[in-house]
Amino acid sequence: xxxxxxxxxxxxxxxxxxxxxxxxxxxxxxxxxxxxxxxxxxxxxxxxxxxxxxxxxxxxxxxxxxxxxxxxxxxxxxxxxxxxxxxxxxxxxxxxxxxxxxxxxxxxxxxxxxxxxxxxxxxxxxxxxxxxxxxxxxxxxxxxxxxxxxxxxxxxxxxxxxxxxxxxxxxxxxxxxxxxxxxxxxxxxxxxxxxxxxxxxxxxxxxxxxxxxxxxxxxxxxxxxxxxxxxxxxxxxxxxxxxxxxxxxxxxxxxxxxxxxxxxxxxxxxxxxxxxxxxxxxxxxxxxxxxxxxxxxxxxxxxxxxxxxxxxxxxxxxxxxxxxxxxxxxxxxxxxxxxxxxxxxxxxxxxxxxxxxxxxxxxxxxxxxxxxxxxxxxxxxxxxxxxxxxxxxxxxxxxxxxxxxxxxxxxxxxxxxxxxxxxxxxxxxxxxxxxxxxxxxxxxxxxxxxxxxxxxxxxxxxxxxxxxxxxxxxxxxxxxxxxxxx
Length: 486
What we know:
The chain is mostly helical. The chain is built from 18 helices and two strands.
């Protein structure tokens, strides 16, 4: 009896360590690449493809999330978790040996496919292993690992780029990937569930195609010449057709990728709109601030990484505070205050010129981080408290989905703004690049400012009737979900 108990506990510990290793892997990748990208552009060329390195990763990671989850329900967790880590490992190694920007974009797509499975499957595996009473503690550990990795990512990326090579920001993933795959692959016993969920392959393909065509349309920007209008019109037309087909398919699907009926809720609709626009701002800041620090201000990769640290630190710390004070403040005030901070921060960045102090940029990003911590956590809580318990998972996942899609489209749009603002060929002086990035940050301020308007659609207080009816505790469940889904 004791031996069996020891084996069970040991297996659970090994799987937990493996999942946490995978969590660290995906978390650090979200920020470590940003500090290295200006150096990558210098060595590989292709400033016009800068935004695609981020957008391709986000697109692949977002669209594949529901597919990984449903396939694991059909055929077991172990096979597909190891497969997701394998995709991520393959993509990381290929990114590390990339010889041009277009090739790097393709390899980031492969990496993103793996990332789409690591986080949700990891959380599902831990949910299988731990009781409801134990999950809060494990969720806190999961969140702590994510927070540490996210904050350390830019600094580690800057150090590796300056000390070794930008290629090491991808190679550093290899040991964590092996640990995660070996631990989960060897220790996890994954019985096949009895339920047979339907997989919305058509919806996933149509959505992927629609977003991909939209991103390709934004990629038709020509330096100093605007857009290639003929190709732009064709791509936008194709994207529109696929979007219409996607909505048609989803409304008739037995188990849709996106349940559109949720958007009719007076809380969920504004929360999804705000989340989309916050995704635009959030990923835009992470992607383009390092380029501004290095290419425009002449800073090092470590400088670029350290500039993001106040953003991420403010985000994590304010999320903790928000979870404690939201019950007193209510949704509307918290979302309004958070989005106002983000919009104000972007506006200040748009006014910073080439002679600016790095500490000024850090101070502005700290304000933005505080705003993001207030906003994203509150949006997740609002969505979770607006649905019955049986819809909690799909509603929360939908919030992650809209933020990530917003990030992919936002980064691509900002990249197009940079390209059309620079001379043909992408060669630009620091002054020209600074002016281009000022326009990017003004766009970010506009996106966050537009989201501020949606805050007035939220109720002033909290849905007390749902809280007292036994819905999931917002503070207990959200902190982990926020860190899992960014």
